Amino acid sequence: MTEYLTPDQVAELLSVSTKTVFRLVAKDSTMPVLRLNAQVIRFPRERLLRWLQQREGGRSGARSSHSSSHSGQDGLSGGAAG
């Protein structure tokens, strides 16, 4: 089953504000996002992690300092087990 992250969880993962997450969604159509309605969005965890890895490898402006030190782990797995 696919695990979905909230904008707050994505903000924590990226060490940015939730407002910045919403700006990223608006600016980058490649960011994996599921729009449940006009106000509710969720992020498929595995697709988001792949998207981040692709950005790490190709575009310098989107790197998070702590995500480059992980090899496939996002630091959120303990709180969202299902």
Strand order in the largest sheet: 1-3-2
Proper CATH architecture of the domain at 4-58: Orthogonal Bundle
Please state the overall shape, judged from the principal axes of the Cα atoms. Answer: globular
Number of beta-strand segments: 3
Round the mean pLDDT to the nearest integer and report it: 80
Reading off the top of the CATH hierarchy, the class of the domain at 4-58 is best stated as Mainly Alpha
Main β sheet profile: 3 strands, antiparallel
Low-confidence stretches: 60-82
Helix content: 25-40%
> What is the structural class?
alpha+beta
Query: At the third CATH level, what is the topology name of the domain at 4-58?
Result: Arc Repressor Mutant, subunit A
Number of helices: 3
The fraction of residues in strands falls at: 5-15%
Give me the strand/helix succession.
EHHEEH
Kindly report how far apart the N and C termini lie. Answer: 9 Å
Query: Over the alpha carbons, how many angstroms does the gyration radius reach?
Result: 12 Å
